[in-house]
Amino acid sequence: MAKKKEPAYAEAIAEIEKILARFRSEEMDVDSLAAEVKRATELIASCKARLHKAEEEVSKILE
C-alpha cells in the first residue's frame, strides 16, 4: 500500500483547524472521534517535525 503524502505545513494547520471546528461545534459523532483525534495527532507531529527541521536549518545558516 502506498504511503499517503504528507500535506504542506499550511495545509496541515488548516486541516487541524477544521477538525477542531467540527469538534467544537459538536458536528463530530462518537464513531469518527477516534479517527479524527488520530489524524489530528499525526498532523501535529508532522508540523512539529517540520518546525524542528526549519529551526535546525536556520541555526546552521546563522552559525
From TrEMBL:
It is an enzyme of class 3 (hydrolase). GO terms for cellular component: exodeoxyribonuclease VII complex. Residues 30-57 form a coiled coil. GO terms for molecular function: exodeoxyribonuclease VII activity. Keywords: Coiled coil, Cytoplasm, Exonuclease, Hydrolase, Nuclease. Pfam families: Exonuc_VII_S. The keyword Isomerase does not apply. Gene3D superfamilies: Exonuclease VII, small subunit. It comes from the Bacteria. Its EC number is 3.1.11.6. Belongs to the XseB family. This is Exodeoxyribonuclease VII small subunit. It comes from Alistipes onderdonkii.
